[in-house]
Amino acid sequence: METFLSVLVGFGLSAACGFRVFVPLLVVSIASHSGHLQLSPGFEWMGSDAALVAFATATVLEIAGYYIPWVDNLLDTVASPAAIIAGTLVTASLVTDMSPFLKWTLAVIAGGGVAGLVQGATVVTRGASSAGTGGLANPILATAELGGSLITSLLSLIAPALVVFMIGVLLFFAGWKLFQKRAKQPAKI
């Protein structure tokens, strides 16, 4: 049961990495540093003082960068692969009592995959916002993404099953909307 819960926590934190790369890493570092979260062997460094300072600095810089119009679009270019890596890292750091092969396979597919899906959705949304408003609405979007990352990160530690359920529902509705949009398009001959 403990392994299952650690997978759920890792999955939820990986989704949060799709909103903001460093916020979930900072949350993991704080929770580990304070003794509220046990990291997998080999990942104890994430709870160190140095990691805490590094993640806090990176979080502040990332948040500030997303409030500068057009810089936010540039950050999305860098954040897309970084989110996948962070999602993989977070999941691997939390999964215990599992063979390394299975742990890393799960971390790459589930952790990196969900982080990539969420990040992809934010990139598309930011692109539409930039095109539609000339970037004027992007700070509102940046605030929503920051809130999503914080809430998802904290809820992943408190109620991981709820977060995974919510992610599943959101992915279902996003897939359903995409399916409906494609079904309405005329067939090209």
Characterization of this structure:
The protein has 189 residues and is mostly helical. It has one domain. It has seven helices and no strands. Helix 1 packs antiparallel against helix 4. The longest helix is centred in the middle third of the chain and has 34 residues. The N and C termini lie far apart (53 Å). The model has no long low-confidence stretch (mean pLDDT 90).
Task: Please give a quick description of this structure.
The protein has 189 residues and is mostly helical. The protein has seven helices and no strands. It is globular, with a radius of gyration of 17 Å.
The helicity comes to over 70%
Radius of gyration: 17 Å
Number of helical regions? 7
Uncertain runs are none
Calculate the terminal CA-CA distance, rounded to whole Å: 53 Å
Topology as a string of helices (H) and strands (E): HHHHHHH
Binned strand content: under 5%
Structural class: mainly alpha
The count of domains is 1
Q: Choose one word for the global shape.
A: globular
In total, how many beta strands?
A: 0
